[in-house]
């Protein structure tokens, strides 16, 4: 559809699985345009045409054989919505004769960063409805001298967001984390009432942005058995319970703190559609053990829509033509759904 909204898809680290899953998501596997989709969409990859063409060649052995045609555009609005077509903004960042697939390298870190910046600039300028990101390598970023720990911090900095968070969505359950990429020793000190309450509010807004209204939420405890009334730690009493009580005063339907070893099973059984987790591994171990392929990362609190795959670059599996595009397809679906809800009169994420 010529008037369908445009979403920019960053190619990710060229040496990782991003290029091949981009091609497979757009040209093979389950079609992106189907009855599950809230609206049609045009997808434009921000990356390198030469790398994508080589990725399509690597994936040629699929059954039925993967067919890919490339449509190079400079303006996202020139993108087409056609079977087996990959719209590309060709950044020309990679010298492919010197390209080393499946390994971290400075050139790929710099290229991946520039894809992200271009996608953000275009979306902030109103040229796209949102950004979907393929995985990048923190090691490659570091080798390139780029001092961001990941996508979330880049998006927050370049869009001017002050209050933001990463939400992981899987099987209708969204999970926000109070702490993520810090040591466990430091993470415990970061569990404060203000941080917990902030994540509750952001997750509540994110669920509404996904069309879930009213959200049913839970807060996981930090300690075993959620502290057992102070027996195994008092962080629940001092920091988490006051945050939950204030959230309830704001009209948020939220339970907890609940034991972190059972709250996720209760959520997937339908009791809750959102969980605030205190620690990175509390939430991600539960989610990725359930289904590694279909999870989606959503950055909430930004002025633009941003979703991402729920996995990394998988250098050990890259450029073999076997990487699954399932998480990427789910990420695109989530971005389209969020935009559709916003356009229908719902509040933005």
Can you summarize this structure?
Helix content is 36%, strand content 17%. It has 11 helices and 12 strands.
Please, could you describe this protein's structure?
The structure is a single chain. By secondary structure, the protein is of the alpha/beta class. It has 11 helices and 12 strands. The chain has a 12-stranded mixed sheet, sandwiched between helices. Helix 1 crosses helix 2, helix 3 runs parallel beside helix 5 and helix 7 packs across helix 8. The chain is globular. The two termini are 25 Å apart. 50% of the residues are buried. About 3% of the residues have low confidence.
Features:
single chain, 349 residues, alpha/beta, twelve-stranded mixed beta sheet
Radius of gyration equals 20 Å
Q: List the secondary-structure elements in sequence, H or E.
A: EHEHEEHEHHEEHHEHEHEHEEH
Share in β-strands:
15-25%
Helix content: 25-40%
| Major beta sheet, strand line-up | 3-4-2-1-5-12-11-6-7-10-8-9
Number of helices: 11
Structural class: alpha/beta
